[in-house]
Amino acid sequence: MNRAVNEANRGIADRLIGNVGKVIVGKKETIELVLVSLLCEGHVLIEDVPGIGKTMLAKAVARSLGCSFKRIQSTPDLLPSDVTGIHYFNQKTSEFEFRPGPIMANIVLVDEINRATPRTQSCLLECMQEQQVTVDIQTVPLPRPFMVIATQNPVELEGTFPLPEAQLDRFLLRVGIGYPTEDEEGAILSRFQHESPLDNLASVIEPEELLEFEKLCRQVYVEDSVRNYALAITRATRSHQDIQLGASPRASLGLHLASQALAAVRGRDYVIPDDIKYLAVPALAHRLICRTEARLRGRSSEAIVREIVSTVPVPVEEQPKSS
Amino acid sequence: MKTGWQKILLYAAIMGMEGCWLYAFMALLNKQVAGGRLSVPGILLLYPLAFVCNRLLQQLRWPKAGNWSVSWLAWALAMLLVVKVQMFGDLPLTDTAWLLSLHRSIAGVIYNFKPELLLLLSTGVVWWMGRRLAYLKVDFGAMLSEFQFGVSILIVAFFAVSQLSVELTNAVSVALVFFLFALSGISIAHAMEGTSWLSGLYQGHWSGLLLVSISLVLLLGLLIGSVITPDFLQLVIAAVKWVLHLILKVIAFLVSLLPRPEPGEPPPPMPAMPAPEPAEQFRLWRMPESVRSALRIGWTVMVIGILLFSLWRLSSDIFRWLRHRLAGMAGAEFEPLPGAFKADLLSLLKRMLSRLRGLRLPFRLGLKADALLPDIASVRQMYRQFLRWAAAGGYPRHMSQTPNEYFHRLAALLPEAEGDLDVITRQYGKVRYGASLPTEGELHRMSRSWHRVRQIRLKKKEASLNE
User: N or C, fewer C-beta in 10 Å, chain A?
Assistant: First the structure.
């Protein structure tokens, strides 16, 4: 890729981040991670408390892309057919017809995903991994770009069903939005005083343009030593004493793809170790299962990934011997 | 010193270097072909003349073809003048006999190599070299290339002189003058680049240092020339022979100590072989002796050709490697790197062996990856020096720190050098992790930044911060 292409990529990313930033105040990193996930055709799990703008973020991204947006509110009585769609008997035509579910959209917000039963959660597996949905005997491809933004509340546990590992592994990144600072909260109040900026949010990127950008992301150069560095981090999770189940090869692939997308978003045509470091926690932490003893000691998977990242050597020139 | 004068001195240095090896070769040919009749300095006078003439033509900005034609017309006139002066000085200029003689010499080249033809060729070569110099961009890289090429040619010339037993009385002087020009030119070019210590603290003394180093080289040359005489060499060879003889005697003595095998029963005599029946003499065609001779000559020419081709390929590979290495050093500081020479040598040997034997795979196990491109190697070397500089100042990079994290740490300590540190880090990141080569401008910018950063004493800075 030449310099002009890099600048163009960065221009697209800046346009989207700026546009979403009109609604979501001061969360540039989170928006950037959502964009990275979108460029990898991956899915995002937003784990945070209610009322901090998870739905707003998903809607703003969808509006900015000119994509279709659907929301699924997960409840214990939600059925898979409520998500995927159903074949119903049309009395006028005397034929069974397919009525697509809310999953048939470019951006799908699955709110409070852990409130759905495991049966309903599992119906998302095929959609998220293979970008298609099978209803009865019919397989329907999902529109592209396709992205699931799921949210879950980490505090409330009553009446919830923790996501299985297979489901968690299908999320490319897990991000947190976090509370805004005082200034940011003040800006939110003044911005939403008269009307929601989401109502007037215009599309800044066409879906075709995004798909083109996706293709360019795959061309971002990953030097061998940087690739090995990413592998060293994921492999270190498998031998860590506090981890019962380490990151899967899908995690390695996800980290690799996400680092390419992040480099492109930041206007580079090559990946640097900083990209890997930056993405290690969002891409790996949610896929790990900590040992019970570690959990009892208050060790979180994020802290373990951070510890691993701080011990794996970065591929730089050989360290000079101390004189 | 002003830049204009420096340029003139650089041109003079190159002219001097090339003049030296041209002189050596021409003197040899003069002795062999013309019996020493020709005046070599007279021919070499065409070199500055060609340079000046072509520089003037360059200023005129004529079309390329016109420029070329005028230049070679000037050579033809100059060549005729030299032939007239050196070969036919007795004849008047208006007498065309000398022109006819020149024509006959050129026409009879297949029968005999005449001095006139030597004059024609040598003036042509000298003129071409003067013209080449007029268009050459002189810098440090060019000086180094001229130096390495000149040394090779001088060695070849001296070897030929010794093999052909030609008496070249001023060979030592030629060599010394060559090194004088080379050292002066390289030093001035290095100082002109502005990246060496000559442009730093010792800028005021560089001419003194230059003179001292040149004097030292000349002194050593004279000393070696006076000590290593033929008698001395004979003495050394005799000593080596005596030592070898002694070793052989010791080996013979040791062998004599070994037990000899007991002589056994002599084997019975072999029965006589039956006499073979005379084979029927049948030959389809007997090859004439002339054809056999021609084939023998052809075979010899082919073998010699293959040998020469192999030698040429080998030497051109070595030269290309040297040029790549030297081109990559433009603008870089020279610092001792323990193990670098060994790594380079191993890499070169590995490539040569893998080409020769196709044994690339086994060598991958033991040796590092292929040698890097010169520009990339130069940037990475600069960054290694940067790491060493920071580590020496008490701020080594932690193994899990990325270059950017390390930059932020150092930039907090040296806010005044933040820009330069950023250039170094960014450029290194681009080269180390990217797929593109650095441009000349980027290399230069990084080199300048590193040059400025290394002037800062990090330890002192830390102490002042603590205060």
Answer: C
Candidate from A270, A273, A322 with C-beta closest to B396: A322
Select the residue from A224, A228, A260, A317 to test the B interface by mutation, using most B Cβ atoms within 10 A.
A317
ipTM of the complex: 0.82
My answer on whether omega of the bond before A141 falls inside 30° of 0, hence cis, is no
Closest CA to A25 of A200, A134, A179, A241: A179
Q: Which two tokens stand for residue B204?
A: 């005021």
Contact A203, A62 (CB under 8 A): no
Q: At what angle do helices B403-413 and A273-284 cross, to 10 degrees?
A: 110
Residue type, B358: G
Amino acid letter for position B320:
R
- Identify all chain B residues contacting A271, using CB atoms and an 8 Å cutoff: 433
pLDDT at residue number B439:
82
The C-alpha atoms of residue B286 and residue B284 are separated, in whole angstroms, by: 7
List all residues 6 or more positions away from A133 whose beta carbon is below 8 Å from its beta carbon.
Answer: A84, A85, A101, A103, A104, A126, A127, A139, A140, A142
**Could you say which residues from 375 to 414 on chain B have a Cβ atom under 8 Å away from some Cβ of chain A?**
380, 383-384, 387-388, 391-392, 396-397, 399-405
Residue A131 backbone class (left: φ over 0; alpha: ψ -120 to 50; beta: rest):
left
Question: How far apart (Å, rounded) are the C-alpha atoms in residues B327 and B382?
Answer: 15
Which position has the token pair 């221009």? A11
The CA–CA distances, whole Å, from A202 to A64, A67, A145, A209, B349 equal: 6, 11, 18, 16, 64
Placement of tokens 């809310």 in the chain: A102
How far is B225 from chain A, CA to nearest CA, in Å?
42
Rounded-to-10 torsion of CA B333, B334, B337, B342: 120
Helices marked H in B329-401 — which ranges?
340-357, 360-366, 374-392
What pLDDT does B367 receive? 46
Look at residues B440, B347, B428 and name the one whose alpha carbon lies nearest to residue B382.
B428
A62: nearest Cα among A171, A213, A203: A203
Q: Taking the domains of chain B in order of start, what are their residue ranges? A: 3-168, 375-466
State whether A318 and B384 contact (CB < 8 Å): yes
Q: What is the pLDDT of residue B272?
A: 77
Asked whether the beta carbons of residue A221 and residue B403 sit closer than 8 angstroms, the reply is no
Q: B143-153: per-residue pLDDT in tens? A: 888 888 888 88
Contact B433 A270 (CB under 8 A): yes
- Locate the domains of chain A by residue range: 8-192+204-219, 220-314
Residue B369 reports pLDDT greater than 50: no
Return the axis-axis angle of helices A28-39 and A3-21, rounded to nearest 10°: 120
The fold adopted by the segment(s) A8-192+204-219 is: Rossmann fold (3.40.50)
Say which CATH topology domain A220-314 has: Helicase, Ruva Protein; domain 3 (1.10.8)
The tokens of B39 are what? 């005046």
Q: What stretches of A192-272 show up as alpha helix (H) in DSSP? A: 207-218, 224-238, 249-265
Task: Please give the single-letter amino acid code of residue B264.
Answer: G
Compute and round to an integer the Cα radius of gyration of chain B.
32
Nearest to B115 by CA among B42, B43, B34, B23: B34
Distances (CA, A) of B282 to B131, B286, B288, B290, B292: 67, 10, 16, 22, 19
Residues in chain B: 467
Question: Is pLDDT above 80 for B465?
Answer: no
Preferred mutation among A228, A308, A314 to probe B, highest tally of B CBs within 10 A: A314
pTM, rounded to two decimals: 0.53
Quickly tell me which residue has 């030609």 as its tokens.
Answer: B166
Beta carbons of B435 and A274 less than 8 Å apart: no
